[in-house]
Each structure stands twice: as structure tokens, then as C-alpha cells.
Design brief:
Blueprint: H1 3-56, H2 63-149
Helix pairs in contact: 1-2
């Protein structure tokens, strides 16, 4: 197998790896966005619930209803904390995926640069060979004309 096809194959593989890394990065960005929205939703719900609690508290409110309100707030707070942990894990995964994608993209770019240089070198060499053949042909033709005139 000649070098250009090996380098072209490596370049194609690097492009595919970079594409997979970019796809994974996009999926993690989407998951992070969803986790953030979920956290914001839970936080907003907690605030609304606390405001509702303050407005609904009336003298003579049944004790069991008051207990329900009081027990739900800590449960909601735990859900918010769990969502915060999920969000932090997502941030870490996203950061790692970004570094991974950058490395894959950098490798792809480096291989593409090598391939471009190699293709340019091969074109220059082919042009030189062609020019040399043309020069030799012209020289033979010119010598042939001189010999015929002599």
C-alpha cells in the first residue's frame, strides 16, 4: 500500500473519530441543558410552594395539612440537591468530552495538513517529471532538426 492512501485512510479515520466525539459532546450539552432546566423547574416549584404555603396558612388550618406542607418542602429540597449533583456530574462529563473532542479535532487537522502537503509534493513532483520529459522531447527534436540540416 502506498503512503498517500495510508495517510488518506488515517485522515478519514481521524475525521470519523472527531465526528463521533463532536456528536457525544452535543449529546452531553443537550443532557446538561435538560438537567439545568429540571433544576430551575424544581427551584421555581419550591419557591411557588413556599409562597403558597404562606398564603394558605390560616388560623384553623387542619394540622395534617400543615404537616403535609412541612414535610413536602424538605423532600423538594432533597430533589433539588440531587438535581444539583446530576448537573455537576454533567458539567464534568461535558468538560471531559470537550477536551476529548478538541484532541480528536486537533489530530484530524494535523493529519489533514500532512495529507495536503503530501498531495502538493506529489503534484509538484509530477509536474517536474512532466516538464523534464517535455524538455527532453524538445531537446531530441531540436537535435534531430540540426542533424537533418547538417
Amino acid at each position: 500500500m502506498n503512503q498517500p492512501s495510508v495517510l488518506a485512510t488515517l485522515c478519514e479515520l481521524a475525521r470519523e473519530e472527531s465526528g463521533r466525539a463532536a456528536k457525544q459532546l452535543g449529546q452531553l450539552q443537550h443532557a446538561r441543558q435538560q438537567a439545568l432546566q429540571q433544576q430551575q423547574l424544581l427551584t421555581g416549584y419550591r419557591q411557588d410552594y413556599q409562597c403558597s404555603l404562606l398564603h394558605k396558612v390560616t388560623p384553623g388550618m387542619p394540622l395534617n395539612r400543615w404537616d403535609d406542607f412541612q414535610q413536602f418542602i424538605p423532600a423538594l429540597q432533597r430533589a433539588i440537591q440531587q438535581q444539583q449533583q446530576i448537573l455537576q456530574q454533567g458539567e464534568q462529563q461535558l468538560s471531559q468530552a470537550k477536551v476529548h473532542w478538541q484532541k480528536k479535532k486537533q489530530r484530524q487537522n494535523a493529519l489533514q495538513t500532512l495529507l495536503d502537503r503530501q498531495q502538493l509534493r506529489l503534484r509538484v513532483e509530477a509536474a517536474r517529471r512532466e516538464q523534464k520529459q517535455m524538455d527532453e522531447f524538445s531537446a531530441r527534436h531540436f537535435r534531430g532538426d540540426i542533424l537533418c540540416q547538417g
